[in-house]
C-alpha cells in the first residue's frame, strides 16, 4: 500500500483480503474532512467459449459463441460488431439475434447473405473491465454475373465471344456456360462451344452450330462449387452471315390451279432460302 502526496492510495497485487471500507481524511489548521468508499474485490472475468473463423454458404444459418465465467456480483452486458460497426439487433432482427442467458452473448445469424461476411467482434462489458474476442466469417455464394459480353467475330455458323469475369463470391470460378437466343427460340438456350468445356480461367470461347442469317444475342453464366450465378447482360444483337442452304426442300408436289397455272407445294428446313424455277427450267 502506498499513499501519494495528492491523497491517492495505491494498492498493488490486490487480494480478497483488501476488500473493505476505506476512509480518506484530510486535515489542516481549520479542521478535518473525510470521505468513505467500499472496495469490492471480484474474480476476473474469463471467456470460456470463443467464436472461430468459419466459412459458410449463402442462405445458411449459424451461431457464433461468446460465453464467459464471471463473478456473480458483476453486471454483464454483451454487444457485437461486424467490420467495426455495432450490430443493431432491432433494425437487423431478420438476420441477427443475441441468444443465451446472462453469461452468454452468442450471436445467431439467420439466412446469411454475402454482405454478412467479415470480422465479428464480441464485446463483454462488466462493472470493472471490458473484454473482446473475434472471428472472421467468410460467406461463399454463386459467382456474380460476368460483364461486357462481346461478339469479336462471326461467320454463318460460328461466333467468337469474349467477356470479363464477375465476383467469385468467396469460391473460385470453375467454369462458364454460354447461352443464346434468337427471334425463333423460346427464351435462352445453352449452345455448343469450342472448347466444349469452358473452364474458369478462360474469358473467350467460340460458339458453333449456329444458323445462317439469324440475329443472335449471347450471354454468359459463371459457376463455382456453390452453384450457378446470375447471367451476364446480353451482348449486342449480331446477325450471322448468309450461306447456301444445306438441305433441299422435301415433299415436293402439286396440282390444281387454272389452265395456265400449276400449284406447287413443298416443305423446307428451318430458315432455308429457296428459288422456284420456271417450268422450262
From TrEMBL:
Keyword Repeat: yes
Keywords associated with the record: Cell adhesion, Cell membrane, Disulfide bond, Glycoprotein, GPI-anchor, Immunoglobulin domain, Lipoprotein, Membrane, Repeat, Signal
Source organism of the structure: Ameca splendens
Family the entry assigns: Belongs to the immunoglobulin superfamily. Contactin family.
InterPro entries: FN3_dom, FN3_sf, Ig-like_dom, Ig-like_dom_sf, Ig-like_fold, Ig_I-set, Ig_sub
Predominant location: membrane
Gene3D superfamilies given in the database record: Immunoglobulins
Protein name per its UniProtKB record: Contactin-4
Chain segments carrying region Disordered: 230-256
Positions of the Fibronectin type-III domain: 145-243
Cited PANTHER family: CONTACTIN 3B-RELATED (PTHR44170:SF18), PROTEIN SIDEKICK (PTHR44170)
Subcellular location as annotated: Cell membrane
Keyword Repeat tagged: yes
Bilayer topology annotation: Lipid-anchor; GPI-anchor
Domain Ig-like, first and last residues per copy: 44-132
Pfam families: fn3, I-set
